[in-house]
Amino acid sequence: MFDSTTSIKYTAIGDSITLGTGTVLFTPTFVDFYSHYLNSELQFPVKARTFAKNGATTADVKRWLYCSQIFMKQSPIITLTAGGNDLIDAAEAYAITKNNAVLDEALHECCQNMSWIVAYLSKELKQNYAQAMIRIVNLYNPIPDLAFSNVWVNAFNRHIETCSAGEFVKVANVFPIFKGREKELLASDGIHPNTKGHKEISNALIETGICL
To answer: pTM here?
Structure first.
């Protein structure tokens, strides 16, 4: 698939987790840790590029993909972080309305968006590569003190498993890694992973294996 002069593109798509929000400036993020691992294992230079934004939701990611082909160009490795902001936005709306329908509607829309994203990425990569890697980082719970949040996160993560059964797709299961270790793995804001948390995300990605 690659020759000795080829560099492999790795595209990290997503929200503030992919950006590394919560880490100390110039410290590595999961994108850096994972790129280093891929470079070592594949024995080809791996060049990472990031398309992410603070506050991005699954709807934002869907819109980016729908409006641009840039993600697919020469990039057989993709990671995705999305869904956490959908949860936080729903929690804020629920705090105002106390209406369970707000949560149900947000979960439904979020799951529909993820289904579209996974199907789109799978289709695009199959057109360009015999082998590729789509790795989805599922949700940890950034607001475990809210009674409904674990139910919401678990429902979303179950959906990710359901819609991620594609040939190229695997899920990095970070939920059990972060559960009960929030103070250790999250930054002072209590929302974003710190450097140790990013290392754990990379480890979860590594556990999904390499298929190139």
So the answer is: 0.92
The CATH class, in words, for 8-207 is: alpha beta
In 3D space, the residue among 129, 133, 149 whose CA is nearest the CA of residue 141 turns out to be 149
pLDDT in tens, 143-202: 888 877 888 899 889 988 887 777 899 999 999 999 999 999 999 999 999 999 999 999
Closest by Cα among 141, 114, 137 to 204: 137
The model's pLDDT over 128-150, given as tens digits with 9 standing for 90+, comes to 888 999 999 999 998 888 877 88
Q: Are strands 169-172 and 8-14 parallel, antiparallel or unpaired?
A: unpaired
**Helices 84-97 and 149-163: crossing angle, nearest 10°?**
140
Where residue 58 falls (left for φ over 0; alpha for ψ -120 to 50; beta otherwise) is alpha
| Cα-based torsion angle of the residue sequence 181, 185, 10, 119 in order, rounded to the nearest 10 degrees | 40
Domain range list for the chain: 8-207
